[in-house]
Amino acid sequence: MTKRRRWPWVVLLALVLLAPGYWWLFMESAEPEGAFTIDLAQVRRLANEVPGEKPSAIHFEPVAHFEFPGAAIVAGDGWGLEDMTVYAYQLVFPDQRVIVDTAMDEATAKQGGATAFDPEAFARVTKALSEARHVVVTHEHFDHLAGLATHPDAKALMAKAALTKEQLAEPSRMDPLVFPPAALEGYRPLETGALHALAPGVVLIKSPGHTPGSQLVYVQRADGAEALLLGDVAWHWRNVELVRERARLVTAVFLHEDRAAVLRELAELHRLAAAEPALTILPGHDAARVERAVAAGLLVKTFLPPAAP
Ligand SMILES: [Zn+2]
């Protein structure tokens, strides 16, 4: 056989050898095994046990954007770039405000590879953090935590920050963010069971997997409307809709994620979405889903300015 005749066989052999790897790293999601359970009746009970008035409104700020290939977000999707919007949320009560996720400052956004950043939106988040009664994050990744960690008054803010033990256990997960050690000095992290009532209408639901410190944040407004902020258990609604994980290359190499745990959580969220149509489930970075919630009157764009003292 001449050299010329041999090369198609070499290419074919290479494809046969590489195809399973491609499938494993970019296409395959796997089926959920075992169960993760959210007892929504219990969550609702806890949300109503804390004395005081529940939030009347949920505001949000889209602070920055990433662009990821579709398959990075949902294994098996295409290679076209898709938007990943970075949000901060402000729960507005008659007598207090609570921040859920703090987005990130411009320097951290650049380091982390963001493609767009809105300095005015972030300035509003910074002000709102100073005013808030509680600050919580869905998990310990920089695009959710840096707004707090890089805040000029980070040390003072820690007095009202409800960061959990799990969220602070592995600082390398915050990369490229380094939480200022001085701000953490003497800090006593929140240690909770599976459910924790944070404020009237607000319950934290432990959901380790994407990171050890991941938690869902359930919010019941005073008028009964309900939102479930997923953090990054799901990046987009398609993860829940199809019960499909991110590409394995992303979860194994970049995120060091407990993929089996996330799949169980996605399966439970999929079940909840069908069983509880009035509950609005909001993935971490899905602008279309957020816009729908705005149109439905659940979310309001732009934070309220600090209330007059
Ligand atoms: Zn995120």
Give a brief outline of the structure.
The protein is an alpha/beta fold. The chain has helices spanning 3-27, 40-49, 70-73, 106-111, 119-131, 142-149, 154-157, 165-169, 181-184, 237-242, 248-254, 259-275, 287-295, and strands spanning 57-69, 81-92, 97-102, 116-117, 134-136, 195-199, 202-206, 215-220, 226-229, 279-282, 299-301.
Keywords:
Metallo-beta-lactamase, Chain A, 6-stranded mixed beta sheet, 11 strands, alpha/beta, 309 residues, 13 helices
Commentary on this structure:
The protein contains 13 helices and eleven strands. It is 38% helix and 20% strand. It has a single domain, classed as Ribonuclease Z/Hydroxyacylglutathione hydrolase-like (Metallo-beta-lactamase, Chain A). A hairpin with a 2-residue loop joins strand 6 (195-199) and strand 7. Zinc ion is lined by residues 141, 143-144, 232, 284-285.
Shape estimate: globular
Enter the CATH topology name: Metallo-beta-lactamase, Chain A
How is the main sheet built?
A: 6 strands, mixed
In total, the number of domains comes to 1
Q: Please tell me the overall pLDDT.
A: 95
How many H/I helical runs? 13
CATH architecture, please?
4-Layer Sandwich
Please state roughly what percent of the residues sit in beta strands, choosing from under 5%, 5-15%, 15-25%, 25-35%, 35-45% or over 45%: 15-25%
Structural class: alpha/beta
